[in-house]
Write a structure and sequence with these properties.
Elements (H helix, E strand, L loop, with lengths): L2 E7 L13 E2 L2 E2 H11 L5 E6 L2 H9 L4 E3 L6 H9 L6 E5 L8 H12 L8 E8 L2 H5 L5 E4 L5 E5 L15 E11 H9 L4 H6 L4 H5 L4 E5 L10 H10 L1
Parallel strand pairs: 1-4, 1-6, 4-5, 7-11
Antiparallel strand pairs: 2-3, 6-10, 7-10, 8-9
Amino acid sequence: MKIIAVIPARYEASRFPGKLMQILGEKTVITTTYQNVVETGLFDEVFVATDSEIILDEITKNGGKAVMTGQHETGSDRIAEAVQNIDCDIVINVQGDEPFLKLEPLKQLIEVFKQDDQQEISLASLKIQLSEKEEIENPNNVKVITDNNGFALYFSRSVIPFHREISYNVSYFKHIGVYAFRKEALLQFSKLEMKPLEISEKIECIRYLEYGMKIKMIETNFVGVGIDTPEDLEKARKLI
């Protein structure tokens, strides 16, 4: 299989405009993310897909690969445009605001497709268990619930599952925005109309569920910092 990584990078993020160009250590957030993905050595090719000349210039001047795309509602739509004419089998979507992603969870995602002999999995993604009440209730943390085989049932910014039966302990999982797609599933996604649940939650992977596609979730112990707010950026600066 030919496996590539694409980092969707939109400059005008709604909650924190220009966040990918903020300085993290000695480099910008987007350059840090790009270089960390390249350094895993897992991919035949890595590039940034952006609608911003600022981000394009930032990546290319630092020796990276980047392509311009049109305006898109979701990162998956942006990646679909970027890869439609690229010969590949699996596309890993690494969020530009997840600069601390490690090698092991990426290897786990790739392994999902190597073991999927029936090719029933459209995409795979990561989840990590939450324990702090504040983190569970934070709407910036997308929660996911799965079936017994690890396939996603639903994603939400609300607390799911609702803990009504207090005598029973339930586990809460945060969705980490790293996806591995079959190329054909990604291209199909980009042609599908947004449905009410995705529009309401503003969570793009719900579109796959609404159209009956299978999302395999892999539990990881990876702890990074997704940079959605200025406060997240400060956490990331302390971590680096």
